[in-house]
Design brief:
Length: about 270
């Protein structure tokens, strides 16, 4: 299937009439999270951005995985940093299924797919650069973070994706490597939508922020507009919750069900 081209983060940021739809770990509410399949399905349903998580293999390859261990989503155990990529490739990463929302998912006794390999960051860049924006949640540190930055620059990801990081140390590492790498800073959950948290993001040069729904509201989204920040609220998976966020003034939604978000926006005439 051919995808539409992605115009870039600048165009997305500038179009304030457009509600940004971000697919959390791909279309993870329907397909195995953080897999190339889930990402492709998210792009097919019209997501503007795919969000995914990066950790490191033992041999220094950035791989796509959320948890600190392999136990929940695959038939392997332990930390990805303790296994080389060739071993990680032997695992099946379709052992977890989301429920009606992220909180009601469960570990399965048998995988959903006969084969579902782990993806590398480079594979994601190769397959989706220029087709969708990317929110790259980086859990790698030090040399791992530098390798992520190297790939970002090698694949000319400027204005195509941003690195989401949670520490000022990581921010400084990125800035020393390349000041043109776009970042999204995520402080503690209760601070991401606070005035101090949002102003800090602005000072750090962020254009996109990620307020947590439980700690945000109309005042948060109003301040985002004043500061020129685009807020991808985390998260909403139902029609009711999406409409509530839109009523509060959110201009972006991060969701495990970007298909539902798109349907709701279509119903409201906001696509």
């Amino acid at each position: 299937m051919s995808f539409k081209s992605f115009e870039g983060l600048s165009a997305l940021h500038r179009n304030t009439n457009h509600v940004i739809v971000t697919a959390h770990r791909g279309l993870s509410g329907c397909f195995p999270e953080n897999t190339l399949l889930a990402m492709r399905k998210a792009v097919e349903c019209g997501a503007d951005i795919i969000e995914f998580d990066v950790r490191m293999s033992k041999d220094g390859v950035p791989v796509i995985l959320h948890d600190a261990t392999l136990n929940r989503t695959s038939d392997l155990e332990g930390k990805p940093e303790d296994l080389e990529l060739a071993v990680l490739r032997c695992g099946n990463y379709s052992y977890y299924r989301f429920g009606v929302d992220a909180a009601s998912g469960k570990r399965l006794k048998v995988p959903v797919y006969e084969r579902m390999p782990i993806a590398t960051l480079e594979e994601v860049f190769q397959k989706f650069r220029g087709k969708v924006g990317m929110n790259i949640q980086v859990y790698a540190n030090n040399a791992g973070l530098v390798e992520v930055c190297r790939l970002y620059r090698a694949y000319q990801m400027q204005d195509q994706g941003y690195l989401t990081i949670a520490s000022l140390e990581a921010y400084e590492t990125i800035r020393k490597f390349d000041s043109k790498i776009e970042v999204c800073f995520t402080p503690a959950w209760n601070l991401r939508g606070s005035p101090e948290g949002l102003r800090q993001c602005k000072e750090l040069g962020c254009r996109f922020v990620q307020p947590v729904v439980d700690y945000s509201g109309p005042d948060c989204y109003r301040l985002c507009r004043e500061l020129g920040l685009r807020a991808n609220a985390f998260y909403a998976d139902t029609d009711v919750d999406v409409k509530l966020l839109l009523a509060q003034g959110a201009d972006g939604v991060l969701s495990n069900r970007p298909d539902i978000v798109r349907d709701t926006l279509q119903e409201l005439g906001r696509v």
